[in-house]
Amino acid sequence: MEAIRLEFKSEIKEKILELLSSFSSDQLKIVEEYSDFEENKKKLEERALKITNGTAQYSTFEELDILLEDTISKYED
Description:
Number of domains: 1
Number of strands: 0
Organism: Flavobacterium flavipigmentatum
Largest sheet: none
Strand content: under 5%
Radius of gyration: 22 Å
Shape: elongated
Protein name: Addiction module component
């Protein structure tokens, strides 16, 4: 199957869904996007750019373990 993303004014949503409902479920599947899709997309693009241009900051496993232990200890009490 292929996927496309549609953007439309809210007042035509009912008409679009009515048209799409004429197809069988093996021909068409409607997949709702998360409301924060664009925000997440932007964040991921920014992070990918940092990795590509060499400005990304990395942590060792040990540094992450210390951070995790500190975070857990804050909320244990």
